[in-house]
Amino acid sequence: MIANGNLTGSPRKAISLILVCGLAVGVVFNIPFFILDVSEYLSRMEPFRQITLDMSQEEVSNILQKNHITCAIPENPVNYKIEFSDFWRKYAIYFHPGTRRVVRKVLLFRHYDSPIRRLLDREK
Prior knowledge:
Layout: H1 11-42, H2 45-50, H3 57-66, E1 81-85, E2 89-95, E3 102-109, H4 115-122
Antiparallel strand pairs: 1-2, 2-3
């Protein structure tokens, strides 16, 4: 099988083997970095739990910034609400217009249809 230092019978197979092995090594090497990057987005429940009722808007802003959550914090809003989300949930925090303190926290679970259901509904 190994003749003259050649692992495969043809150069085309050798190049294919090198490409496949290089791709596999690259994917395996990058998996830990991918997991670290995605883990922050997958769940934002912990910062939501840190926010308590009667907390000031500045404290809420500090918690969200510390956890790298980007959302618009209104200065002179019509409704005093901050919203952010992750893959599974939507979060909303409501403030009292006068005191700018947290008066309500809302957590909604997102519903994703299965790909099969979306395909079947599209054909109707």
